[in-house]
């Protein structure tokens, strides 16, 4: 009995020794995560303070309990920012899954490699433009007075639409332009998954007399399941990230009620108005809600798709 | 015996003090060189007017730095220099947040309060008493004491005001007079006539594109100094952004007055009639300027300098165009008062541990003396004809608040009696510009904007009229920002602009204004009003 315990100890010691290099290799990463992810968490105390920057983070600040949160609750923009964030992010997440999956399957069916490659590159290109540049371009293209899009609509006798200034159109414009910018990039991920599928499966299906749609339905899609679930879990973590860069470059005061999101809101309160306490409170609220979403989505992925990261 | 010694000591001390004042401590040269460390921003006008002509000069080696060194033995150094005012504020706010505060620094009142709260800067009232020369005091206090009150916290003066004129901020009504003449219209004297004029301009379609798209110029930031709405609201007895006294003698926030609602209602009607750009909520001043330049705008509210920019480019393009600034007008049954605010925008503060804090007072004395003193060296140190912005090279820039209206009055006198010998200093250099314009030369035409400010029909005439007829509504709160103001005011201002824009565009009904007033009070406005009134009671 004693002997086996000793052996087990020896064995585990041996295992640790064997894996030591891997642990050492992990250390720099852990240190970086600790410095940049965990230490800044201590700044969350600002959310409960009447924060005066010049006194320093750990200086003699005045504690005010939940006052910052109550103030946020009363601030008319805060609730609408939360609502906008969820709505915009939800549609972005759904479309960012559906469209790239569809496009990748369709592209995969195209015989001409030349066309496929060209199409792939072209839809991939906007991904590399920053929102600063695209923002400027979109403002010009979508302008109701002299934008090209409204000129074209005018040819069909339509009244000009103020895409970036009307609360009816702003969210839609955000979602469509973001999907247009990013779907090429996501398509590549799914295409990579498709090329990994064993060609034998397709050959076998052909012999069994399956047509193209049946092959898509019964071979391609099931084989993509893992990557789809992974992308879904990862993107659910973004449910409160509606895209600061994009919104910041496209919005204006008149569309705050439909276009202002948590991140732009926090930016204005914190960095422009210097209300650090309130901004931190809002940021903390966002983190808490995000954590709930991520945990839930991870749990669901484990339960329904038997997918686990850890 | 002890008493006697005390009296003796007092007499001795008094002697020393008087001896000192004979030597004018504020202008005395240091025996040893004293380094003063500032931080600053620079701008395009300095690059264009000075550094491009004198490429071997730098911020630390130029006429003003030489002057401070030779006359006071003060060596000016800069810890950092950034390109624009926005960058300056961002960098300075960060520096304050991390406690890396420069020795001498120009700040606004918010930054000043933060620094006082952090106990980082020293009180300067003793230095001001001891070292400011009589002439400096006369200039710094000539715009009232509000620049000092704004920097006074708990009874201590924490910043020396880089004073500037309050009157200059008042809105004027700029109108294209060539259009008025073509349509045979009079200069509008009521709000109804202003609206009728705007409609007539739109009907007339002067740019000939077949569309009624001539607008009243309004920029998205509503209250800046061009394409502003301030003058319009003032016509409804509403004073956005400043504090005014109500009938009970209490201060109230001018944006929450009932007149504001009427002004918003009228603006909403104008918007629906197409007299306001549908896209104004996304256009900044530079973008709206395209409308004045291209003959799509013939009427707007703005400051006296608007003729130099943006209107000069309008007349450059269309030589027949003519603009003139007129007094703002009132809606039916309203008293017309143009709102003003403390013109001073920056205060020089001194870090607590600085050895020679009085150096900055000496610099103030020298700057004021050289530019507006009896020797009249304004033409060399302030704005010589060949490099206009040279005064900006000094790290402190207290301006004679009445230099512009003074110059205008000098020029008016000259227009009456034709005696050029009495026109001196800055007025003289302006007179040369006016003469160049009147010569009709190509170069002279580029000075059209100056003629519109200082000429016989000049914008300053209207401003001086405001003053003489008591047509100004000053900001009655001129103290340092109160505690709640520091943290909540800018958010409230954002909320205000957002609601106002929505109401003008018809996204929300005019009654949303009442909800705004409620929100304003809940979100800190009530506390701010209380603090402001406490301050008001303390200075009354």
Judging from the principal axes of the Cα atoms, what is the shape of chain B?
globular
Strand portion of chain A, in percent?
under 5%
3D shape of chain A: flat
At CATH level 3, the topology of the largest domain in chain B is: D-Maltodextrin-Binding Protein, domain 2
Structural class of chain B: alpha+beta
What class, by secondary structure content of chain A? mainly alpha
Q: What is the subunit arrangement here?
A: heterodimer
CATH architecture assignment of the largest domain in chain A: Orthogonal Bundle
Taking all Cα atoms into account, the compactness measure Rg of chain A is 26 Å
Helix count, DSSP H or I runs of 4 or more residues of chain B: 23
CATH class label of the largest domain in chain A: Mainly Alpha
CATH superfamily of the largest domain in chain A: MetI-like
On the 0-100 scale, what is the average pLDDT of chain A?
Answer: 87
Furnish the topology, listing elements before pairings.
The complex is a heterodimer of chains A (310) and B (540).
Chain A: H1 2-38, E1 49-50, E2 62-63, H2 67-74, H3 76-109, H4 113-124, H5 131-142, H6 148-155, H7 170-195, H8 199-207, H9 212-236, H10 244-250, H11 256-259, H12 262-272, H13 276-305
Antiparallel strand pairs in A: 1-2
Chain B: H1 2-22, E1 34-41, H2 44-51, H3 63-72, E2 74-82, H4 85-98, E3 104-107, H5 109-117, H6 125-131, H7 134-140, H8 146-149, E4 152-153, E5 156-157, E6 160-161, E7 172-176, H9 177-183, H10 191-204, E8 215-217, E9 226-228, H11 230-234, E10 243-245, E11 251-253, H12 258-272, H13 285-293, E12 297-302, H14 311-317, E13 323-326, E14 338-339, E15 347-350, H15 358-372, H16 378-381, H17 403-417, H18 425-438, H19 442-445, H20 448-454, H21 459-468, E16 472-473, H22 483-504, H23 512-539
Parallel strand pairs in B: 1-2, 8-12, 14-16
Antiparallel strand pairs in B: 3-15, 4-5, 6-15, 7-12, 7-13, 9-12, 10-11
Helix pairs in contact in B: 17-18, 18-20, 22-23
């Amino acid at each position: 009995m004693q002997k086996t315990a000793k052996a087990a100890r020896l064995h585990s010691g041996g295992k640790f020794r064997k894996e030591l290099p891997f642990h050492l290799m992990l250390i720099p990463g852990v240190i970086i995560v600790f410095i940049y992810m965990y230490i800044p968490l201590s700044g969350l105390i600002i959310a409960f303070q009447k924060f005066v920057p010049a006194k320093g983070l750990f200086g003699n600040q005045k504690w005010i309990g939940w006052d910052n949160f109550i103030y946020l609750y009363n601030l008319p923009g805060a609730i609408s920012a939360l609502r906008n964030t969820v709505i915009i992010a939800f549609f972005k997440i759904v479309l960012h899954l559906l469209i790239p999956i569809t496009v990748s399957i369709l592209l995969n069916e195209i015989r001409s490699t030349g066309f496929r490659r060209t199409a792939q590159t072209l839809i991939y290109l906007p991904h590399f433009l920053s929102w600063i540049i695209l923002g400027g371009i979109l403002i010009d293209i979508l302008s109701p007075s002299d934008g090209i899009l409204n000129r074209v609509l005018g040819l069909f006798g339509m009244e000009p639409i103020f895409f970036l200034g009307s609360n009816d159109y702003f969210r839609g414009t955000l979602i469509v332009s973001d999907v247009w910018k990013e779907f090429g990039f996501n398509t590549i991920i799914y295409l990579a998954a498709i090329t990994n599928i064993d060609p034998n499966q397709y050959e076998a299906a052909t012999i069994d007399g399956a047509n193209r749609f049946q092959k898509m339905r019964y071979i391609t899609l099931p084989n993509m399941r893992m990557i789809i679930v992974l992308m879904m879990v990862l993107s659910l973590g973004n449910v409160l990230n509606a895209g600061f860069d994009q919104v910041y470059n496209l919005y204006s005061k008149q569309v705050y009620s439909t276009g202002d999101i948590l991140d732009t809101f926090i930016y204005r309160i914190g960095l422009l108005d210097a209300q650090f306490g309130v901004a931190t409170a809002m940021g903390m609220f966002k983190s808490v809600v995000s954590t709930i979403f991520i945990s839930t989505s991870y749990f669901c992925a484990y339960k329904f798709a038997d997918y686990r990261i850890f | 015996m002890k008493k006697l010694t005390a009296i003796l000591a007092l007499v001795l001390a008094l002697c020393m003090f008087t001896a000192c004042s004979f030597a004018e401590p504020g202008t005395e040269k240091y025996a040893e060189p004293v380094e003063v460390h500032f931080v600053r921003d620079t701008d395009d006008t300095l690059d264009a007017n000075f550094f491009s002509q004198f490429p071997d000069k730098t911020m630390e080696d130029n006429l003003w730095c030489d002057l401070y060194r030779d006359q006071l033995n003060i060596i000016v150094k800069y810890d950092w220099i950034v390109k624009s005012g926005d960058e300056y504020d961002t960098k300075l706010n960060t520096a304050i947040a991390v406690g890396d505060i420069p020795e001498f620094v120009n700040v606004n009142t918010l930054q000043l309060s933060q620094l006082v709260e952090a106990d980082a800067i020293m009180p300067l009232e003793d230095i001001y008493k001891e070292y400011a020369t009589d002439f400096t005091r006369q200039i710094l206090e000539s715009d009232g004491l509000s620049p000092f009150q704004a920097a006074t916290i708990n009874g201590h003066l924490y910043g020396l005001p880089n004073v500037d004129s309050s009157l200059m901020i008042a809105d004027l009504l700029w109108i294209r007079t060539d259009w008025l003449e073509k349509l045979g219209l009079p200069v509008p004297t009521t709000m109804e006539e202003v609206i009728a004029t705007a409609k007539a301009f739109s009907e007339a379609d002067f740019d000939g594109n077949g569309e009624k798209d001539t607008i009243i110029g309004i920029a998205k930031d509503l209250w800046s100094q061009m394409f502003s709405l301030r003058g319009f609201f003032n016509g409804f007895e509403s004073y956005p952004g400043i504090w005014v006294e109500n009938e009970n003698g209490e201060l109230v926030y001018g944006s929450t007055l009932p007149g504001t609602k009427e002004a918003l209602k009228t603006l909403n009607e104008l918007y629906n009639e197409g007299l306001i750009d549908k896209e104004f909520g996304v256009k900044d001043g530079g973008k709206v300027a395209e409308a004045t330049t291209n003959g799509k705008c013939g009427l707007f509210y703005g400051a006296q300098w608007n003729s130099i920019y943006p209107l000069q480019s309008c007349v450059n393009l269309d030589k027949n165009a003519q603009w003139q600034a007129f007094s703002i007008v009132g809606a039916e049954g309203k008293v017309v008062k143009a709102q003003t605010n403390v013109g001073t925008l920056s205060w020089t503060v001194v870090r607590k541990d600085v050895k020679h804090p009085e150096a900055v007072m000496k610099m103030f004395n020298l700057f004021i003396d050289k530019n507006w003193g009896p020797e009249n060296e304004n033409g060399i140190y302030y704005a010589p004809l060949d490099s206009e912005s040279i005064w900006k090279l000094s790290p402190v820039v207290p301006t004679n608040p009445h230099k512009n209206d003074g110059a205008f009055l000098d020029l008016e006198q000259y227009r009456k009696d034709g005696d050029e010998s009495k026109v001196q200093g800055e007025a003289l250099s302006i007179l040369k510009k006016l003469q160049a314009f009147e010569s009709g030369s190509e170069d002279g035409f580029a000075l059209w904007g100056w003629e519109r400010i200082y000429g016989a029909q000049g914008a300053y005439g209207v401003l001086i009229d405001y003053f003489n007829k008591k047509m100004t509504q000053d900001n009655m709160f001129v103290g340092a920002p109160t505690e709640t103001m520091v943290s909540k005011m800018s958010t409230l201002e954002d909320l205000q602009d957002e609601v106002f824009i929505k109401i003008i565009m018809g996204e929300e009904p005019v009654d949303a204004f009442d909800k705004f007033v409620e929100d304003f009070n809940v979100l800190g406005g009530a506390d701010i009003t209380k603090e402001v009134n406490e301050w008001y009671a303390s200075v009354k």
